[in-house]
Amino acid sequence: MVDSSEWTAIQHVVERLTQRYPAVEPETVMTVVHRSHAMFDGRPVRDFVPLFVERRSQEELAKIGG
Questions:
Q1: Taking burial as the number of CB atoms within 10 A of a residue's CB, which of 32, 33, 44, 54 is the most buried?
Q2: How far apart are CA 54 and CA 64, in angstroms?
Q3: What tens-digit pLDDT sequence spans the chain (66 residues)?
């Protein structure tokens, strides 16, 4: 289960990546981040999930919008 601090951190990831990749539609950024976040569902250790989500999302967004 995702706690509120993790959810807040994921929202911050969406905001940062939306600014970093202005050529990519904000909805696409949100979709990429949420898809990356879903990969960690059920994992017991949650401390670094937002960091891993951001890194994975950056890789995907770089391919989409440079």
A1: 33
A2: 15
A3: 678 999 999 999 999 999 999 999 999 999 999 999 999 999 999 999 999 999 999 999 999 986
Compute the distance between CA of residue 66 and CA of residue 50 in angstroms, rounded to an integer: 22
Q: Which of 28, 50, 26, 25 lies closest to 39, judged by CA?
A: 50
Closest by Cα among 12, 10, 15, 18 to 36 = 10
**The model scores a pTM over 0.85:** yes
* Residues 15, 55: Cα–Cα separation, whole Å: 14
